[in-house]
Design a protein that fits this description.
Strand content: under 5%
Number of helices: 3
Number of domains: 2
Structural class: mainly alpha
Radius of gyration: 18 Å
Distance between the termini: 31 Å
Helix content: 55-70%
Number of strands: 0
């Protein structure tokens, strides 16, 4: 099953305001445009299953145990 990722509308508006301000202040070029991430459906299915199966939580637990600074 393919997943379509979407930003929360309020967060998307915040990001857009920050992007416009960064352009106005010369921090990024005006032609920087928008970044639209794409995840192939196959990868999305693998990620979703990993999350549902608890693999992500287990990996985070291992990282936190091995290197508390990364937790």
């Amino acid at each position: 099953m393919a997943k379509e990722l979407r930003l929360d509308p309020e967060f998307a508006a915040l990001v857009e305001r920050a992007r416009r301000r960064a352009i106005e202040m010369g921090e990024i070029p005006a032609q920087a445009g928008h970044f639209e991430p794409t995840i192939p459906p196959e990868a999305s299915a693998v990620i979703a299953e990993w999350l549902r199966g608890g693999g992500y939580d287990a990996a985070i637990g291992r990282v936190a145990a091995e290197d508390p600074d990364l937790a």
